[in-house]
Structure formats: structure tokens, C-alpha cells
Write a structure and sequence with these properties.
Blueprint: H1 13-30, H2 35-45, E1 48-49, H3 50-56, H4 62-74, E2 78-83, E3 90-95, H5 97-100, H6 103-123
Antiparallel strand pairs: 1-3, 2-3
InterPro entries: HTH_HxlR, WH-like_DNA-bd_sf, WH_DNA-bd_sf
Domain HTH hxlR-type: 16-121
Protein name: Winged helix-turn-helix transcriptional regulator
Length: 124
Amino acid sequence: MENTVVFEEPITAQKCSENLSFVEDSIYVIGGKWKLKIIIVLQENGNIRFNELQRSIPGISARVLSNELKDLELNGFVKRVVHADQTPVVVEYISTDYSRTLKPVIIALSDWGKTHKRKIKENF
């Protein structure tokens, strides 16, 4: 049985445009090769140091990871915690409560990806 989307109200051109804008904004914030991987690792591991985070994501360079973390912090998905009372200074990254609101989205994307992969394999 095909899944159908039921809209409570008719979709107008304005509402469609608005929804597309929201989707574009979402993809802009979490899109790219690394952001969701970083978010998922942080959600699974809790507090994690930079080098450990880098080892958890094969193929990511330190420079790219640093830039992505800054972006994610700016958007409220990651919190950088500095423990200055320790020698050497320890910096950890944690996912925020706001970041955890993405969990249902990540699960939905994963489920869709699994279904899509199965469908593609059946057609070829």
C-alpha cells in the first residue's frame, strides 16, 4: 500500500512556496557530507573530545571538522565545553537538547533511505 500524505487544508501556491523555503532552510543547516554524521556521533557518544570525534568519522579532516563544529555550534546543535581547570586544557563537544530534536528526522531519513535502496535494487 502506497503511503499518502493527507493535508488538513488545501495547499496554495503561497503555502507551497513557504514549505519549500522551510525545507531549503533545513537542508542548508544540516546538509552536506559531514554535519549529520557529526550530530549522530555526538548524540551516540555524549561528551567527546575533538580527536576522538575525528576518529569516529572516517575521512574527515581536522580542518573540515573544526569548521563544521563551528557551524553546528552557531546553529545551536553543538555545545563546546572548555575545562580550563585541567592541564592540559580539555575541550569537549556535546549535542544540545535542540540537536536531539533532529532524532525523529534522522530516523525518518534512515527509514526512507533503506526503503529507497531496496526499491532501486529491485528495479535493477
